[in-house]
Amino acid sequence: MNIGYYPGCALHGSSNDYEQSLRACLGALDVQLDEMKDWICCGATAAHSLNHKLSLALPARNLAVAERDGFKQLFAPCPLCSMQLLKAKKAAGDERVRKELSEIVEADLRGESEVLNLIQMFEKIGVARLKSAVKAPPKSITAACYYGCLLTRPPDVVHFDDFEQPTSMETIVAALGAKTVEWNYKTECCGAGMTMSNEDIVLELAHKILSNAAEHGANCLVVACPMCHVNLDMKQAAVERRFGKKLGMVVYYLSDLVGLALGLSAEQLSINRHFVTQA
Amino acid sequence: MENQALGQVPSEHLPVHFPSPIQVANCYQCGKCTAGCPVAMHMDVAPNQVVRLAQLGEWEKALRSRAIWECVGCQTCSTRCPKEVDCAGVMDALREASLARGMAAPERFSVVAFQKIFLENIRRNGRLNELELIGHFKLDVVLHTGRIPFLFKDAGLAPQLGKRKKLHLIPGKARDRGVVNRIFERCASERKP
Amino acid sequence: MSRIGVFTCWCGENIARTVDVDEVAKRVAELPGVRCSLNYKYMCADPGQALVREKIASEKLDGVVVASCSPHMHLKTFRKAAQTAGLNPYLVEMANIREQCSWVHHDRAQATAKAFEIIRLAVEKVRNDAALQPIRVPVTRRALVIGGGVAGIQAALDIADAGHEVVMVEREPSIGGKMAGLSETFPTLDCSQCILTPRMVEVGQHPRIKLYSYSEVEKVEGFVGNFKITIRQKARYVDVSKCTGCGECWNVCPLKRNSSEFDYGMGMRPAIYIPFPQAVPARPVIDKSQCAKLIRNGCGLCEKKCKAEAINFKDEDRLVEEAVGAVVVATGYKLYSIAKSQPKTTLAGYGEYGYGKYKDVIDSLQFERLVSASGPTGGVLKRPSDGAIPKSVVFISCVGSRDNAKGLPYCSKICCMYTAKHTMLYKHKVHDGQAHVFYMDIRAGGKGYDEFVRRAIEQDGARYYRGRVSKITQEHGKLIVRGADTLAGIPVTIEADMVVLAAAMRPADGIEELAQKLNIGYDEFGFLMESHPKLRPVETNTAGIFIAGACHSPKDIPEAVAQASAAASKVQVMLAADELTREPEIAAINEQTCAACFTCIRTCPYHAIDRAELRTPRGAFIKNTARVNPGLCMGCGTCVSVCPSKSADLQGFTDQQVYAMVESLA
After folding, report:
1. CATH class, B4-100 region
2. What is residue B193's predicted lDDT score, i.e. its pLDDT?
3. Three-state DSSP class for A204?
4. How far does the CA of residue C463 sit from the closest CA of chain A (Å)?
5. Which of chain C's residues have a Cβ under 8 Å away from the Cβ of A164?
């Protein structure tokens, strides 16, 4: 299966471990990522914080170019990117806005392509197929699945899973043979784009999430977002220093866990490049 | 949008996409936004009070508040609002207006600077250049605050990032940066001079 | 008609100030067919009416137009006056020159001209009026009460005490409704069962009340004064006539761990059970989904033990018919469920409160059972998960209510009061406990109500926070309640042992189906519609059917009881006579010209038109036709507008009259 791929800035930057994990994992499932050539940044938090129109135009440009290039499905592994793309897609539902955006971005925005997040990607491949492809069930893993904000919010834009009590990631993790826990911070925010600019808030939020997962018996977190990974993995040492306690919570991308179950090595999946590699 | 329902609102304070007066009037101040907000305890004005200021047309207070820059944009408030008010959208719109009017809270300089530098960065490169972003941001904060040590904060992370091949010294840029620039031009904030 | 009298009223200054009544009377006198035209200061007063009567007699009038106020105001007055003077009352028309003219205009000349035109229309209408006779329908002097809660009980007792027979149908095995399960009632804190159960016994023993418990209304036929009700008596597997209610059966039943409906899942009951000790009738019922005998022909202990031989495992549903003249619907309410998926509703539930997955998050009716002396814990407040006594309880108002995102924008009205009551009951039981209340507004209008809420706060120490709760999670056996206090502008987090949700009041299950059977209206939430929100609050738009209690809108006990008595008094008025008279302004179908397309039958909102056959006196078939049932027709005119062959017409408002009126303006 070939699928359109919108990596977004993070995956080509400091979250390149996520991209490597995706390519390895999906490759093992015969999914080839066909990266769209002319992608630009989706505008991220900065655009929707400061310039509403721009926050629609940037993803609209990407969606329009993807549609121009014939991608019926566009896989955007970063939930912020995929939410932004879906926001543009939703905006295109209004013909007047669609025309205006098309003019701004110099390409015909149709808003017809399907936008997939990582979980949907696996759902597309099929839980049954995943199950049958498992070679090394990660039985020692008891995962707290962490959705963060934008996989399920805003619900009227992303239309994905139950926005209060999501379970789609658990379904996939369970299919691999790993255990999952019920916990309270599945959809609480990790501070996202405030990593650099408001570290206090990020550390506090990350601390709550990490400790709650541990309190509910998880030995690792599973995420499907590069931002969440940065705040929970890279910043974990800072969290430990700030709150004076050892957490040692490994943070996997969902694709890491799937890859491990398929028999790929930690190196192939870039897990060795995470900051917290063992408890 | 002219906020006629609220009378005294100076319209040039409001960005065109500001949630309609009806939306804002819909809020009955139940505080569920504040209750669910992950950062409300750090705000000078709670989310429901930000919406209240909008209801009252107290734009000066709203635009100068720290709260709008503490908001992490997690959408929890909008998602749970019983009256379906887009509280996160109100925050976005207030940030945009605050910036355009030069009213952004000075205590939250770093957040404002980061967002601005982020946008400038993608305007130049089409895609984000992380190193450039970090460099610009740190410099900006130091120039503004005089806190030299900020330059070296997290510097310890750099070798760690390098070791993990997470630092891209020569990142890719978008091919057609002209179009990016034109998009930015066309989206320039539409406020009256 | 050529001897029409026109009587123009000044209405004091109301009309005369703006309309030149002399001028009007003068011009009207010249209209063809008008025999006399007079004006007078107060036509509705005795001298005015006398004038009308006198002229009818002296001028031998065959039609009367009174030009004054709205017919809603005085049509009946003048028709009665005409009748006493020997004129058919349906030959009296009113021209409304007050509400539709003098009150809404300033220019005297124009208003005078308009008043003349209005009168001219009425003259044309009366010229084409036919002398009609009121419709008389016989009345079955019995009433049906659907629902045996406090409203149904009140209505039934009122009607029965007035001397009429009452048939009461209750879906559950016992009457008593929601009130029977309440602990104490606001604002007096008197024991709910203590005040209700004597009334239940009265119903059970009343010589004029026939109680069908564990039964539902299957079918409704007929019309006002003459309803035929089919009632489904659900198989009880216990012969009520033999059973003595001794209790041997439910004591011996080995299957004792079934969730109790009466305790809203807070307690257990056997497979053969009475819902609660004071049940009326005090006769058990077997739950066929749980009984081992009925499922797999096992057990049968109850049958062996029953000395009265009242157990009948072969019991089946039975249909019985009852004839009644009037119906009171008092089907009550249920609470909003926060569960994710709910049968037959688009309501999505509260994921942020856990969709009901936390055992110690309960609703207010469950709390009532937990603090009730007759409840599953004997009145000791123990939380459901582990039986511990909760030391910190959070009460949340407006769960589902006033929440557009959850589908219910309305206020449930009683929650503020019972939540205050709950905090008091809690404090009285757990002295070292703390009650926390999240509220948006405190709506405590009523006698002694606000004082009651203040007492909860000031004397019993309930802590009130003005804000909603955003999320409930569970950690270390505590419920973490994340709310806000908007007065302080801060988030508030409380670690609670139990959370009580004041969930919205919704109409009872099956209300739409019942309303359709009865042909009465309901709103988008399923609450039954009254005929007029101010002036006809207990009537429905279908004659002979009345509503009482929370099936109409959220209500507390005093209001439900008051409305029930109001409905009962309306029923008594109806049943006071052997015959009902109804205004004859209803549809009639010309059966000769009817094309038998039956479009009218499909469009009639009152199911008042039937198929019929025209036959010769000897019985030979001539043709099919539609026929109006005068008992059911409300005179809305829908059939008239849809009839393609122009065979339907409205008496007293015929097409001919309307055309004549329109043409008179040309």
Report:
1. mainly alpha
2. 32
3. helix
4. 26
5. 350-352, 355
